[in-house]
Write a structure and sequence with these properties.
The protein is an alpha/beta fold and about 425 residues long. Helices cover about 35% and strands about 15% of the residues. It has two domains: about 5-100 and about 185-290, Type I PLP-dependent aspartate aminotransferase-like (Major domain) (Aspartate Aminotransferase, domain 2, 3-Layer(aba) Sandwich); about 295-429, Aspartate Aminotransferase, domain 1, CATH 3.90.1150. The chain is built from 17 helices and twelve strands. The strands form two sheets. It has a seven-stranded mixed sheet, sandwiched between helices. A five-stranded mixed sheet has the order 8-9-12-11-10. The N and C termini lie far apart (about 55 Å). The relative contact order is 0.13.
Length: about 425
């Protein structure tokens, strides 16, 4: 697509296939090539100087910029209806990259406590070593976010669909709180994907993804991305000096002043990615791009299969409860209809009546489901979060996160639905 073409002129499927790419000008190759190179030849010394000073855009060194990765960045920004994106090596890396431009030593942020266990650990423990402080709050009561605002609070972080239990945050209400206090709302959209939900439509300012999951879709490649929605004014006050004040690494430029509505993305790439070095490989970018082309088809089937599995388990005599927002009995059902009319994804949890031992028996009895730590694969996946993905948390925090000892997380794949249900039914007997 040319720069002149409006991203909204095409449907979602078209954009997941074509955005950011064009036939290779030298060979005519239709697929985006894997540019497996570390560096790029400069035209002359002046050209090199201008690239390093951010006076021109181009390729310098693959830790910062790479043509294969750039296509992925443009495509993800496009399907999230946003301004710009910066890809990196993993979802965890994306969270760190997203936070670095906003936080200084002693600063504070607020996060939902219904998160992937690794994120809770990252926020509450590892980031303390950076001098960053986090308040983890129950997102079901939106006022908890406002009640924890401090003078040094720099942003709010939520997941659109929570990992592991698929619960939904009322993003519109949270965004109003963030706007009231002039702080960005950062939304992890990994479990929903842009097919199900566009956070920018409901007030998000920054979006993150683990590209490893549904975006790639086949369990082959690690990746993450930070997406700048381009709708937050970092120059309104001095709350974000990294974006509003002169940057000494680049001759005193002010990122938000110089680059306008993609100043945050430029800061993430030119400053944070440069120094942290969590680069996405061209090979992984290529694999993720190929997976992304079928996202709309896969998510439709994921949603369909998940609904049928959840309905089956909801009436199973050995299941005490099913946490799936697509069930009318779910307390998140109305939010699902509002924010995710195409379906609330395929990640959810179940509780078993006989508790922990029954959970272990189920995990070890299934034949079709794979016992792995990943989600969003074409294959159906199963895990016991309390003893794995959330094992580093206290029992109290496990329960708060939706990962109690009697809980199983399911990631429903694309297999024939009768086979998925039969596998669970046999394993539960």
């Amino acid at each position: 697509m040319s720069k002149k073409e409006n991203k909204n002129n095409f449907g979602f499927a078209t954009r997941t296939i074509h955005s950011g790419t064009r036939p290779d000008p030298f060979t005519g190759a239709r697929n985006t090539p894997i540019y497996q190179t570390t560096s790029y030849v400069f035209d002359n010394t002046e050209h090199a100087k201008r690239l390093f000073n951010l006076q021109d855009f181009g390729f310098i060194y693959s830790r910062l910029t790479n043509p294969t990765v750039s296509v992925l960045e443009e495509r993800m920004a496009n399907i999230e209806n946003s301004r710009a994106a910066v890809a990196c090596s993993s979802g965890h890396a994306a969270q760190q990259l997203a936070f670095v431009p906003l936080l200084e030593n002693g600063d504070h942020f607020i996060s939902s406590n219904k998160l992937y266990g690794g994120s809770i650990n990252q926020f509450s423990k590892t980031f303390k070593n950076f001098g960053w402080n986090c308040s983890l709050v129950d997102p079901d009561n939106v006022s908890n976010f406002e009640n924890n605002i401090r003078d040094n609070t720099k942003f709010i972080f939520i997941e659109t669909l929570s990992n592991p239990d698929g619960s939904i945050v009322d993003i519109e209400k949270v965004s109003k709180i963030a706007k009231k206090y002039h702080i960005p709302l950062i939304v992890d959209n990994t479990l929903a994907t842009p097919y199900i939900h566009n956070p920018i439509d409901w007030g998000a300012n920054i979006i993150t993804h683990s590209l490893t999951k549904f975006i790639c879709g086949n369990g082959t490649s690690m990746g993450g991305i930070v997406i700048d929605c381009g709708n937050f004014n970092f120059l309104e006050d001095d709350k974000f000096p990294g974006l509003s004040q002169p940057n000494q690494s680049y001759n005193g430029i002010k990122f938000s002043e110089t680059f306008g509505d993609f100043g945050y993305a430029m800061k993430v790439k030119a400053d944070s990615l440069r120094d942290l070095g969590c680069t996405l490989s061209p090979q992984n970018a290529f694999n993720i791009l190929n997976g992304l082309e079928t996202l709309h088809l896969r998510m439709k089937e994921h949603n369909s299969n998940a609904k049928l599995v959840a309905e089956f388990l909801n009436t199973h005599p050995k299941v005490s409860s099913v946490s799936y927002a697509g069930l009318k009995s779910s307390k998140y059902y109305k939010l699902a209809k509002k924010y995710m009319p195409n379906g609330p994804g395929s990640i959810f949890t179940i509780k078993l009546k006989k508790g922990f031992k029954a959970c272990i028996d189920l995990v070890e009895s299934v034949k079709l489901f794979s016992h792995v730590a990943n989600i969003g694969d074409t294959r159906s996946l199963i895990i016991h979060p309390a003893s794995t993905t959330h094992s580093q948390l206290s029992n109290e925090d496990k329960i708060k996160a939706g990962a109690a000892p009697d809980t199983i997380r399911l990631s429903i794949g694309l297999e024939t639905i009768d086979d998925i249900i039969q596998d669970l039914d046999f394993a539960l007997k």
